[in-house]
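Quick note —
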Amino acid sequence: MRSGVLAQKIGMTRLFTDSGEHVPVTVLRLGNCQVVGHRTKEKNGYIALQLGAGLRKVQSTTKADRGHFAVAKVEPKRKLAEFRVDEDALIPIGAEITADHFVVGQYVDVTGTSTGKGWAGPMKRWNFAGLRASHGVSVSHRSHGSTGGRQDPGKTFKNKKMAGHLGVDRVTTLNLKVRQTDVERGLILVEGAVPGVKGGWITVRDAVKKRLPDGVPKPGKFKLAEGAAAGKADEGASATSEATAKPEAKPESHAPQAAPAAPAQPAPAPAPAKEAAAKEAAAKEAAAKEAAAKEAAKPAPKGETAKPAAGKKPKKGE
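Predicted structure written out below.
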């Protein structure tokens, strides 16, 4: 027994056969349908796959669900479902099931939630014929008639078909034929109507009452996550590199080990750059002071008075 898939109902369209006949089909889309968890006999008492589809905001996901998805290394899913499978039909966690999981020509069973229609009368809900539309009926043409006897039995039996809420029920449609699949866009075209509204979530699995055709992939058609595949490849590469590097690094235990060569003495390092900079600054300062002294010793030209040096007050008599 193989796993089913979680799909989203897009709507209905039609296909044309080679003879020109048109076939009404329902378009189902696989929205990143991934394996989230396994159910085993040792831990849970049965064997099944837990699948998740659609995307969910992290802030809208509970803390427990975040941990559950983190263990599986998948993004938070909008919808979850379980499918009972055989022990040899388990698919790895994190794998994404593709549209070619089903082959063209095979039959599937489709389960969904029917469209809600609110409160409905007995004619719409149970397909009653109604009362006479001409004579003998007064303003109750669409009623369900009497609901019980008089004194005997004196009550209305349970499950009596009457007016009430219609729709929003779990409905399974059997033996729908797969007409076409599109792996790139993740579409499955199924002949006939599928319960539910546009955008509703549908579970699709192999038909119970029909035999599987030849060529159906087992345990299924899926692709592994890129990160997991890359991680496995990196692990294999590192393992091989370690295996090749270890024998070269280990010396033979029986052969005497040669003494390690003395490391070459480094050349004497030049004087630090800070000392050279300090010496250069001191020489510049001394040269500046000497030039200032020479300038002060020169006599002032006629008609001009020597200006006092900056920062010094002139003495009396100057």
